[in-house]
Amino acid sequence: MPPSANPAWNEVFFFPLRLPPICEKIQLAIISGSKVLGTATLHLSHISSAGTELEEETPGFLPCFGPTFLPFYGPRPDSARTSGTPPNVAYRGRVLLEINTHMGAPDGRQQDIISPEDVAQVQCHLPRHQLGLCGVFYSATMVPSGQDLLRFEISIGNYGDTGDVTCKPAASVTPHSRPVFDGNRYHYLPWYSDKPVVAVTSSWEAVSHRWDALNLLQTLCRHLVSTHG
């Protein structure tokens, strides 16, 4: 939806899904005309479960996802590609998405509009927080040989990406350096006592309630493995 960098469709799509499914993936793509800007893939095995039969049957659940942001990745718009080399892949955007599965016969609908009440209910739960990332590069060894100048870049989404003009510039890249032969087999960047420092400031929705729950479950799993493993 040009020229907006943050389009809002507020649409719902309906498509039939047979269980167990023949395909294992749901692939989504952001398309501008006939050009694919970015793609994302959801694995049905990650968002659903058929259940398991143990001493007592463990119930499964139908495919479900979100509502949450799904990141999309695709070729960098400023990347130069030569014959035989893969394109540089970069973050191309994200979509606030929810998937629900309902049993029953399809009613024939393919597309509909999400009601303004449902849109407002989601938007009020998306306060934004600022996040900062600082990185220090201590060494760069075993780098490709040649006369080309090399540099490293750190980005979070499109923040810090020098090829993205939708965000403010950031000190996210190291200075250009030419590789130096180490006298044996490899090349390195001659940083010596001057270590490059990069910093990226970004703004994202506050989803600490999900991070807290995930961190708690992962910590509990590691504790159980270390205690009873």
- Helical stretch tally: 3
CA-based shape: globular
Alpha-carbon distance between the two ends: 53 Å
Helical proportion, percent range: 10-25%
Radius of gyration: 23 Å
Biggest β-sheet strands, sense, barrel: 3 strands, antiparallel
Strand order of the largest sheet: 10-12-11
Estimate the strand proportion: 25-35%
- The domain tally reads 2
Count all strands and give the number: 13
Order of helices and strands: EEEHEEEEEHEEEEEH
Low-pLDDT sequence parts: none
**Class inferred from helices and paired strands:** alpha+beta
Quote the average pLDDT.
Answer: 86
What does this protein look like?
It is a single chain. The chain has two domains: 1-126, no CATH class; 127-228, no CATH class. Helix content is 14%, strand content 32%. The protein contains three helices and 13 strands. The chain is globular, with a radius of gyration of 23 Å. The N and C termini lie far apart (53 Å).
